[in-house]
Amino acid sequence: MSTRSERYEFASDNTAPICPEAWAALQEANATAVPSYGDDRWTARVCEQARELFETDCEVFLVFNGTAANALALAQICQSFHSVICHEHAHIHTDECGAPEFFTKGSKLLVIGGANGKIDLGEAQTIIAKQPELHSHKPRVISITQATEFGTLYTRDEIAAISEFARGRGLLLHMDGARFANAMATLNCHPKEITWKLGLDVLCFGGTKNGVGAGELVVFFKKELAREFDYRVKQGGQLGSKMRFLAAQWTALLTDNIWLRNAGRANAAARKLAKGLKNEAKIDIVFPVEANAVFVRMREDVGRILRARGWNFYKFIEPDVYRLMCSWSTTDDDIDGLIRDLKTS
């Protein structure tokens, strides 16, 4: 088969276009001049929509991207002598260039293992016990990723157990929800049931991977934790002067459950892809396909052939493990094309 142009359908859900609803909202927000720095009707509306979605009086803030959301949220609830317990493959540890430590001005990430990308509470207890008083960073937060970096999901019972563990040790609970929508589309429960009702303190709710061009929500379920967070957002370079363009896209996502529909499409595409890879291309699937990621085991020469044919994707964790990420815009033709090329590689 001849070499063809570059294709990024499975490289990342960040490569997907803006969804039509968010694009239409951007056009509406662009029609005339409005107040700046969040004093606009779209920003007010998205904050109210978030409160309606979670059914609680939470504090809601908009920032540009997920790294800023995580780093500033953790900085808000940590002091420089605190530490954050997270999985060794958590995005805050592997992919944020030290931003959490930078913005907390000295806090430390304590990394632990756990099957399928989820933290092991036994390891969490062990690492906490190894922190001598006054001579090590004081554990302050447990951070979990939903969906995980391996595309797996924490169940309600698992989050409840982590929350109970955290409360028993005076720790706060943070959730990196860059793909929270994908988790919700699979878990099929009300958002409150796996967030504040289980004791979650702060959620970084991702929109970029769910159909918007830019913009994440930082949601504090305990309002006292959000005190003066607006100043932190400004100091961190995350206060948009034309905030309406971030907020308008989110108002579209949170209207008529577009956020769930987009995530459901991505998840369904991942399931279809995994089924085809396993049954037709005889490719091993490494982790359970619970959200919109498919991890496969392929020989390096097969990966090279696919790239020569235009497909882009990432190696992940091990030399022969690759990540294929579906998005709201992934089509059956995309899936069929990749499987067809794999079968002839």
Q: Could you give the topology of this structure?
A:
Elements (H helix, E strand, L loop, with lengths): L19 H10 L11 H14 L4 E5 L2 H12 L4 E6 L3 H4 L4 H5 L4 E5 L8 H9 L8 E8 L10 H13 L3 E6 L2 H8 L14 E5 L9 E5 L8 H7 L8 H10 L4 H22 L4 E2 L7 E5 L2 H9 L5 E3 L1 E8 L6 H12 L2
Parallel strand pairs: 2-3, 2-4, 4-5, 5-6
Antiparallel strand pairs: 1-7, 6-7, 8-9, 9-11, 10-11
Characterise the protein shown here:
This protein has 345 residues and is of the alpha/beta class. It has two domains: 234 residues, Aspartate Aminotransferase, domain 2, CATH 3.40.640.10; 86 residues, Aspartate Aminotransferase, domain 1 (Alpha-Beta Complex), CATH 3.90.1150. The protein contains 13 helices and eleven strands. The mean pLDDT is 96.
Summary keywords:
345 residues, alpha/beta, Aspartate Aminotransferase, domain 2, seven-stranded mixed beta sheet, 13 helices, 39% helix
